Amino acid sequence: MSIDTKTAGRVAKLARIKVEEADLPALAQEFTNILGFIEQLNEVDVEGVEPMTSVTPQRLYRRDDTVTDGDQQAAVLANAPDAREGFFAVPMVVE
C-alpha cells in the first residue's frame, strides 16, 4: 500500500501536527514504510500462540476480591483537623 502526499497531509492535520508542504513527500514515504512493515507482520503465522503480558514468565499475585472497609479509619482520621463520631467534620456552608 502506498500513501500519497495528500493523504499524508490529511493524516498530519487530523493528528494536529504542523508539517511543511516540502516535508510531505518524506512523511508520505515514512507512512508507506510503516504500512509495509505492518503487512510483513500480518504474514507471520501466529496460530496457537498465546498472548503475552511480559517477555519473562511471571505469575501474578492474586487475592480474593472481597469488599472491606479497609480497616484504616483511625489512621485516616488522625490526619483530619476535626473529626467527630468517626467522620470528617467540616464547617457548614449552606444555611
Automatic annotation (TrEMBL):
It holds the Pfam family GatC. One of its GO terms (molecular function) is ATP binding. Its EC number is 6.3.5.-. The keyword ATP-binding applies. Keywords: ATP-binding, Ligase, Nucleotide-binding, Protein biosynthesis. It catalyses: L-aspartyl-tRNA(Asn) + L-glutamine + ATP + H2O = L-asparaginyl-tRNA(Asn) + L-glutamate + ADP + phosphate + 2 H(+); L-glutamyl-tRNA(Gln) + L-glutamine + ATP + H2O = L-glutaminyl-tRNA(Gln) + L-glutamate + ADP + phosphate + H(+). It comes from the Bacteria. GO terms for biological process: glutaminyl-tRNAGln biosynthesis via transamidation; regulation of translational fidelity; translation. Coiled coil: none annotated. Allows the formation of correctly charged Asn-tRNA(Asn) or Gln-tRNA(Gln) through the transamidation of misacylated Asp-tRNA(Asn) or Glu-tRNA(Gln) in organisms which lack either or both of asparaginyl-tRNA or glutaminyl-tRNA synthetases. The reaction takes place in the presence of glutamine and ATP through an activated phospho-Asp-tRNA(Asn) or phospho-Glu-tRNA(Gln). Belongs to the GatC family. Heterotrimer of A, B and C subunits. This is Aspartyl/glutamyl-tRNA(Asn/Gln) amidotransferase subunit C. It comes from Planktomarina temperata RCA23. The gene is gatC.
